[in-house]
Amino acid sequence: MKKYALRIRIWIDEDDGPFLGIGRVILLENIKETGSITNAAKSMKMSYRQAWQLVEDMNKRASPLVEKMSGGKKGGGAILTEAGENAVREFRNIEQELNLIIANKSKTIKF
Amino acid sequence: MKKYALRIRIWIDEDDGPFLGIGRVILLENIKETGSITNAAKSMKMSYRQAWQLVEDMNKRASPLVEKMSGGKKGGGAILTEAGENAVREFRNIEQELNLIIANKSKTIKF
Question: What is the pTM of this model?
Answer without folding.
Answer: 0.82
